[in-house]
Amino acid sequence: MAAAPGLSRRTRRAWSRFDGPARLVGIDLARGLAVLGMLAAHLLTIDAFVAEEPSTWLDIVNGRSSILFATLAGVSIALVTGGTRPLAGSARARAAGRLALRGALLWVIGILLVMTGVPVYVILPAYALLFALSLPFLGLRPRSLFLSAGIVAAVMPWAFPFLDSAAIWSGRGGEQLQALVGWAYPFPVWIAFLLTGMGLGRLDLRRLRVQALVTIIGAAVSAFGYGLAVVAGEQVAGESPYLAAVWSAEAHSSGLGEVVGSGGFAVAVIGLCLLVCRTPVRWLVIPLRAVGSMPLTAYVLQIVVWAVFAAALLGDTSDLFGVRDAGLFLPLTLGLVAGCTAWALLIGRGPLEALVDGIVRLVAGPPSRADAVPSASRR
């Protein structure tokens, strides 16, 4: 669908970037769902999932939205470092430097959000560490990335209960340290999601067959993980708190059930979004895609608006239940979607995305022609 001839050059350029042939719009849709899912998990009181009660189905956003967000970060990293053809040599080194700087900027933004006092676990500090941890894996092909992700997913849930109970977290300054490293999204476990996303980003995600396989395999892995948690959980329930933690599928537990089940769920959602955007539905979900086209701006803006709202009306940015009772979710969501849609279609790149990219270019220089990502691999 081409931009109307009467539109300004800037608007036509914005539309071309938003919906041009070089962009995987299904990835934007998945990001939009992840951002709004995290907002719902924060601002809505959601009952535990019961299959027979549709009113509890919204519980699907708890934990899974942030895991989808992390998996999509891996997809983005792969796409900007060569897509299906990983950068090599000096080009990879330059790309790694830019990613490291981008991660540092995300960490700073994340700490500033933590300082607002809004009672959420800010994901950006964890994001920053995951960016750093991704650097040794930039040259790997999909098979190696998926294998690495599988090893982490199989091993780290057994170690996580010990890591999580380490004295460093409960000692002096432990709470501050958790915020600094985003321990609510523990990087020793969550690197599995990032590596999975990188593996996806190294595939040719424009092919129908690949999109279908990603959806089917993700759904199968998800069913296996959750099913394993149910079976194993029944066997160890009440017998061993350690084994119960290892096999858990609870949100933010970092148990095997969650890592495999929710990780597979994220993969299936990405594949499904890519498939959906092959159909005319892609036009109906433009607002969601707009949010997903500027995820950093959308994520930061929701927390800033929340902080301002809580400070002005409640006098306390940490009053979670007061904000929920005030019904902030709906107006904030509608405002966020409308604002992102207008910005994406009329102006283009999200303001924070443009700011971070501008700083990276200023410090590290723009990507050279040798670093250019093939058009079939761009986001």
In short:
This protein has 379 residues and is mainly alpha-helical. The chain has helices spanning 9-19, 25-43, 64-79, 89-114, 124-134, 142-164, 167-170, 174-181, 187-201, 208-236, 241-247, 256-276, 281-284, 286-293, 295-313, 320-325, 329-346, 351-364.
Describe this structure in words.
Helix content is 68%, strand content 0%. The chain has 18 helices and no strands. The radius of gyration is 20 Å and the shape is globular.
Ordered list of secondary-structure elements with their pairings:
Blueprint: H1 9-19, H2 25-43, H3 64-79, H4 89-114, H5 124-134, H6 142-164, H7 167-170, H8 174-181, H9 187-201, H10 208-236, H11 241-247, H12 256-276, H13 281-284, H14 286-293, H15 295-313, H16 320-325, H17 329-346, H18 351-364
Helix pairs in contact: 2-3, 2-12, 2-14, 2-15, 3-9, 3-12, 4-5, 4-18, 5-9, 6-9, 6-11, 10-11, 10-12, 14-17, 15-17
